[in-house]
Amino acid sequence: MIQFIRLDHVLLCIPEGATAQARAFYGGVLGLDEIPGNHPSGAIWFQIADIQLHLREEAGGNYSKRHPAFEIANLDEAKQYLMNKGIDIEYSSDIDGRERFFFRDPFDNRIELLQFVD
Q1: How many whole angstroms separate alpha carbon 60 and alpha carbon 47?
Q2: What is the CATH number of domain 4-116?
Q3: Helices (runs of H) and strands (runs of E) counted in the chain
Q4: Which of 2, 32, 44, 92 gives 20 to 30 Å between its CA and that of 79?
């Protein structure tokens, strides 16, 4: 089984070329604190209470990379469990201090599971 701990972040997609507008809205209008850094795929990250909001430019289409990310306590076990159920595992860019993978539900929604590491 998968030992869920909490929702870690949500990634929302924005139109190509809209990063400045998104930064102005989420940082300026909503007043969210931007998390500095060179994030994967040019994403911008904001802190909302105890979760993060990630925004990334993406061309339109049905097969989106939008996703929630759940922190779990047993990433390797969860990966094996899902693979045993016939679920395809996807990988993405590395992020310091986190191990992670992705999978899709039967409706093509992307879900990330992650575990923080030292």
Answers
A1: 26
A2: 3.10.180.10
A3: 2, 7
A4: 44
The tokens describing 40, both together, are: 């994967």
List, for residues 7-48, the tens digit of each pLDDT value: 999 988 888 898 999 999 889 988 889 999 999 989 999 998
Tokens describing residue 18: 């809209």
Is 0.70 surpassed by the pTM of this model?
Answer: yes
Exposed e or buried b per residue across 50-61, where buried means at least 16 C-beta atoms within 10 angstroms of its C-beta = eebbbbbbbeee
Measured distance CA(39)–CA(36) in Å, rounded: 8
**Helix, strand or coil for residue 75?**
helix
pLDDT tens track for 76-88: 999 999 999 999 9
How many residues are listed for the chain in this entry? 118
